[in-house]
C-alpha cells in the first residue's frame, strides 16, 4: 500500500478452489480411485493455491485458508479437533483418511478393505448451491486445536505476497451451522470453543499475521437474544487477541444486528454492500472511528459486470468520509463464480462483453480503488468501456421479448389448480398403475459412463453424426430399461444419457439462456456444476424430452417417468439476470416448463417428475421474508405442474436442505408424490410429520448416493420403519435420495438390489392395520 493517508485498501474474501480446468476435481477423483498418491494430490493442491495467490497479487491483502480439498466447514471441524467418534476411532494411516471418511463415508484406503462409515450430513451453505458438511456436537464434545495445515499454507503464501490474511469461520457461526446429536444445547460448547479460537489466533500472530478474516454470516439472520449474547460474549472474550480481526458478514443486511456488529471489539467490519447497500450510511455512523470498514462493492455471487461509474457515484462520498479506513472487496467469497472469463473463447461476443468472472471481478476492485486513490481520469478509458458494455446490455433487443412478457401477464389462478383434489386423484392413479405397497423408483439419472460422455462430446464437436448419436443414446436408454427390469423396480426412468446437466440440458433448448465452456463452480467436494446464464426473456419453442421418454416407454410395460427440472430450480441454479425481479424470471420459466409437461402428457407419459431440488435455497435468510418468496415459488411450480389430467401423476424431488420448517409450503405444491433426502440425516426430516400431516405421497430417500458405500437391506428397512411410524404405508415410496449419474454401475446395482429387497420385505411385513 502507498503511504498516502487517503488510499483505500483492496482485499478478497475467498477465491474459487477448483482451478481453471477443474484440476482439483480430477485430482481428487484419481486419488479416491487409487490412481495417484496422497503426495500427488497434495502437490496439485499446492500448485493451485500458488496459482490462485498469483491471480490475486494485484490486491493489497490476499486470503489464505479459503482453499479446501473438500469443504471449508469440514476443514474447520478438523482444525478444531471436532471429529465424529465413528471416524476418530479409526487408526488412520494418514490424517486425510478420516477427513474423507467424514466427507464421503470412505477414504482412498478403505476401498480394498470394503470398510465404510456413515458420511457426515451435507446441506446447503446459507442460500447458495454450495454444500457443506454439518459439524456434529454432543454434550461430551471437546475441542483441541490442530492448525498445522493452515500454518503450512501461510508459510507458502508469505513467499508470494507481503500481506496475508487468513480466513477462518467464526465460532458462533460454526456452532450455528452444526447439529447436536443428543439434544444438548450447542451453545454449551461455546466457552470450550473460544479457548481453542484464542489459541489459534495466538498461533497466527506468531506466524507473522496482522489481519485475520473471521466470518460470521449468521449476523445477517434473525437471531434470538441467546445467540446475540453468544456473539457479543465471544468477541469480548477474544478482544485481547494479538491480531486484528476483520469481522465478515455477507449474503444480506444486518438489520437488527447492525448495532451489535458495529460495537463488537474488533478492528474491522465487512458489509456486503450489494445486498446491504441501504445500510452503508448507518454503519458508517455507528462504526467507531478507529475501525476499518470493508465494503463488498462487486457482486461475488453473480457474473454480470459491475456498473463502475454508478458505483463510483455513491462510493466517492463514502471514501470522503472514511478515507484510509475504507477497504474494498467483492461482496462475498468468489467461490460461487467461475474463475476466469478469458477462458471463454466461444461465448457469444455481445453476452461475453456483459460478464465478469472471479479474476475480472478482482480487476473491477482494482479499477474502483485506482479511481478513488488517483481520480477517475486515471482509469477513464476503462470506465468508458465499462459504460458501453452496461449500456449495450440494457438496450439489447435480445434481452426483451414482448410476447413472453404478455404471456406472463395472462397467468391466472386457475392455471395452478388441479382438476380434482389429491384424495380423488389418488384413487384414479392407484387403479391405473396397480403398484405394490412401498413402490420402488429412482430419482432420474443412471451412471454417466465415460463412453456416454465421450459420445456427447463427439457429437457437440461435430465428430459424430446426429443419426449415430441418437442411435448411441437409444442404446444406452435400452440398457437402462433392461437393468431396471432385471432389478425389479416398479416405476422406471430412461436414465438421462443424453443430458449433460439437469439445468443446462433444458436451458440449451429455451430462449434467453447462454452457456459457457469453462464456467464451473463447486457444489461440493469434487462435484462441479456449470450454471447457465439467464440473460433474457425465457420461452419454450419445441418439445425437449418427448422423443427420448416415448422411446423408453416403448421398451417396457412398466410406467416410465418423464423427467423435468422445475422452474424454481432452473432459476436458483442459474446465473440470473438482475434487470428484473427473480419472480418475473421464474414465471417465464414456469410457463416454458408447463409447455413441456403438457407435451409429455400428450405423448402418453402418465408419470412426470418435476425436480425442485433447489426450492429451499432460494429462501431469504430472514424468516420474516420467507412467505413472500414461498408464495411466488410455490405458485410457479403449480403453474408448471397443474395443467394435467387427474390420471397423470406428478412427482417432485428435493435434496440436501432442511425442509422441516417449510413442510406446509411444500404440501401446497400439491404434487402427488414427493421424493426427498433423509438418509444422511437419519430420517430427521420426518420429525416434521409429528406436528404436520403431509397430505400426499412421499418417498424418503433411503440411501446416500453421494457416498460410494452400498446400503444394507437392514439399514433401509430401519429407515423406512421410522417413516412408517409417521406416514401411512399406502403413501410411502422407496427410492435413493438423489440421481445416480455420479455413481458407477458396480455401485448402483447392488444398492438398488438391496433397496428393492427391503421394499419387498416391508410390503410383506407391514400393513396399514399394523402401522398408520
Helix tally equals 28
Number of DSSP strand runs: 22
| Mean pLDDT value | 93
Shape: globular
Descriptive overview:
The protein has 772 residues and is of the alpha/beta class. The protein contains 28 helices and 22 strands. The protein is globular and about 75 Å long. The relative contact order is 0.09.
What's this, in brief?
The chain has 772 residues and is α/β, with parallel strands linked by helices. It is 41% helix and 12% strand. The chain has an eight-stranded parallel β-sheet.
How is this fold's topology laid out?
Elements: E1 9-10, H1 23-33, H2 38-55, E2 62-64, H3 72-79, H4 85-88, H5 95-104, H6 110-113, E3 122-124, E4 131-133, E5 136-137, H7 148-158, E6 164-169, H8 171-177, E7 179-180, H9 190-206, E8 211-215, H10 225-237, E9 244-248, H11 258-263, E10 268-271, H12 280-286, E11 292-298, H13 308-322, E12 326-330, H14 349-352, H15 358-374, H16 380-395, H17 402-409, H18 422-433, H19 450-460, H20 466-487, H21 504-507, E13 510-514, E14 521-524, E15 527-529, E16 533-540, H22 546-554, E17 561-565, H23 567-572, E18 575-576, H24 582-602, E19 607-611, H25 626-641, E20 649-654, H26 663-668, E21 673-676, E22 697-700, H27 713-724, H28 745-765
Parallel strand pairs: 1-12, 2-6, 5-7, 6-8, 8-9, 9-10, 10-11, 11-12, 16-18, 17-19, 19-20, 20-21, 21-22
Antiparallel strand pairs: 3-4, 13-16, 14-15
Helix pairs in contact: 1-2, 13-15, 17-24, 19-20, 24-25, 27-28
Amino acid at each position: 500500500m502507498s503511504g498516502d493517508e487517503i488510499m483505500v485498501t483492496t482485499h478478497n474474501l475467498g477465491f474459487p478452489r477448483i482451478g481453471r480446468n477443474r484440476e482439483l476435481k480430477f485430482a481428487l477423483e484419481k486419488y479416491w480411485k487409487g490412481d495417484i498418491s496422497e503426495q500427488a494430490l497434495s502437490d496439485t493442491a499446492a500448485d493451485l493455491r500458488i496459482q490462485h495467490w498469483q491471480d490475486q497479487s494485484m490486491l493489497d491483502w490476499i486470503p489464505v485458508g479459503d482453499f479446501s480439498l473438500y469443504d471449508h466447514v469440514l476443514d474447520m471441524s478438523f482444525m478444531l479437533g471436532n471429529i465424529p467418534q465413528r471416524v476418530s476411532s479409526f487408526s488412520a494411516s494418514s490424517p486425510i483418511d478420516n477427513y474423507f471418511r467424514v466427507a464421503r463415508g470412505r477414504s482412498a484406503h478403505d476401498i480394498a478393505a470394503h470398510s465404510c462409515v456413515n458420511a457426515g450430513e451435507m446441506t446447503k451453505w446459507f442460500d447458495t448451491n454450495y454444500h457443506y458438511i454439518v459439524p456434529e456436537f454432543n454434550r461430551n464434545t471437546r475441542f483441541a486445536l490442530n492448525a498445522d495445515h493452515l500454518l503450512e499454507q501461510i508459510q507458502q503464501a508469505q513467499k508470494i505476497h507481503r500481506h496475508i490474511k487468513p480466513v477462518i469461520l467464526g465460532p458462533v457461526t460454526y456452532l450455528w451451522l452444526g447439529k447436536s446429536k443428543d439434544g444438548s444445547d450447542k451453545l454449551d460448547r461455546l466457552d470450550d470453543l473460544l479457548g481453542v479460537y484464542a489459541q489459534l489466533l495466538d498461533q497466527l500472530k506468531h506466524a507473522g499475521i496482522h489481519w485475520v478474516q473471521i466470518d460470521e454470516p449468521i449476523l445477517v439472520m434473525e437471531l434470538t437474544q441467546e445467540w446475540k449474547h453468544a456473539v457479543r460474549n465471544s468477541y469480548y472474550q477474544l478482544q485481547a487477541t494479538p491480531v486484528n480481526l476483520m469481522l465478515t458478514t455477507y449474503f444480506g443486511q444486518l438489520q437488527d444486528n447492525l448495532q451489535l456488529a458495529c460495537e463488537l471489539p474488533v478492528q474491522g467490519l465487512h458489509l456486503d454492500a450489494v445486498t446491504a447497500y441501504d445500510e452503508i450510511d448507518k454503519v458508517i455512523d455507528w462504526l467507531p472511528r478507529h475501525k476499518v470498514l470493508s465494503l463488498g462493492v462487486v457482486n461475488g455471487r453473480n457474473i454480470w459486470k459491475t456498473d463502475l461509474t454508478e458505483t463510483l457515484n455513491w462510493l466517492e462520498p463514502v471514501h470522503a468520509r472514511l478515507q484510509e479506513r475504507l477497504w474494498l472487496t467483492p461482496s462475498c467469497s468468489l467461490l460461487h463464480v467461475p474463475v476466469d472469463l478469458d477462458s471463454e473463447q466461444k461465448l457469444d461476443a455481445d453476452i461475453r462483453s456483459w460478464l465478469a468472472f472471479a479474476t475480472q471481478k478482482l480487476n473491477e476492485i482494482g479499477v474502483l480503488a485506482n479511481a478513488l486513490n488517483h481520480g477517475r481520469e486515471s482509469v477513464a478509458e476503462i470506465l468508458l468501456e465499462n459504460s458501453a458494455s452496461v449500456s449495450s446490455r440494457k438496450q439489447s433487443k435480445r434481452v426483451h421479448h414482448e410476447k413472453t412478457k404478455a404471456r406472463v401477464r395472462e397467468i391466472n389462478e386457475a392455471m395452478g389448480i388441479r382438476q380434482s383434489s389429491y384424495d380423488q386423484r389418488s384413487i384414479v392413479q392407484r387403479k391405473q398403475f396397480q403398484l405394490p405397497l412401498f413402490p420402488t423408483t429412482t430419482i432420474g439419472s443412471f451412471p454417466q459412463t465415460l463412453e456416454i460422455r465421450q459420445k456427447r462430446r463427439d457429437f457437440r464437436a461435430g465428430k459424430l453424426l446426429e443419426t449415430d448419436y441418437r442411435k448411441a443414446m437409444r442404446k444406452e436408454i435400452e440398457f437402462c430399461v433392461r437393468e431396471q427390469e432385471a432389478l425389479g423396480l416398479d416405476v422406471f426412468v430412461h436414465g438421462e444419457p443424453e443430458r449433460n446437466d439437469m439445468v443446462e440440458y433444458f436451458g440449451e433448448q429455451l430462449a434467453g439462456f447462454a452457456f459457457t465452456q469453462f464456467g464451473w463452480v463447486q457444489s461440493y467436494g469434487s462435484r462441479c456444476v456449470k450454471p447457465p446464464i439467464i440473460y433474457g426473456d425465457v420461452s419454450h419453442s419445441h418439445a425437449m424430452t418427448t422423443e427420448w421418454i416415448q422411446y423408453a416407454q416403448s421398451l417396457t410395460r412398466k410406467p416410465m417417468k418423464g423427467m423435468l427440472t422445475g422452474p424454481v430450480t432452473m432459476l436458483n441454479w442459474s446465473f440470473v439476470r438482475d434487470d428484473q425481479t427473480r419472480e418475473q424470471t421464474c414465471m417465464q420459466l414456469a410457463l416454458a416448463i408447463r409447455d413441456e409437461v403438457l407435451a409429455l402428457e400428450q405423448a402418453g407419459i402418465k408419470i412426470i417428475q418435476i425436480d425442485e431440488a433447489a426450492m429451499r435455497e432460494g429462501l431469504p435468510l430472514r424468516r420474516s421474508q420467507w412467505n413472500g418468496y414461498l408464495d411466488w415459488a410455490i405458485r410457479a411450480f403449480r403453474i408448471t405442474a397443474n395443467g394435467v389430467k387427474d390420471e397423470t401423476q406428478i412427482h417432485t424431488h428435493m435434496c440436501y436442505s432442511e425442509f422441516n420448517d417449510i413442510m406446509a409450503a411444500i404440501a401446497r405444491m400439491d404434487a402427488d408424490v414427493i421424493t426427498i433426502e433423509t438418509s444422511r440425516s437419519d430420517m430427521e426430516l420426518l420429525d416434521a410429520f409429528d406436528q404436520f400431516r403431509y397430505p400426499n405421497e412421499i418417498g424418503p430417500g433411503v440411501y446416500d448416493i453421494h457416498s460410494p458405500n452400498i446400503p444394507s437391506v437392514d439399514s433401509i428397512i430401519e429407515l423406512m420403519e421410522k417413516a412408517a411410524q409417521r406416514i401411512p404405508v399406502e403413501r410411502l415410496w422407496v427410492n435413493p435420495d438423489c440421481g445416480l449419474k455420479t455413481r458407477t454401475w458396480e455401485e448402483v446395482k447392488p444398492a438398488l438390489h438391496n433397496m428393492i429387497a427391503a421394499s419387498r420385505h416391508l410390503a410383506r411385513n407391514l400393513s396399514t392395520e399394523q402401522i398408520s
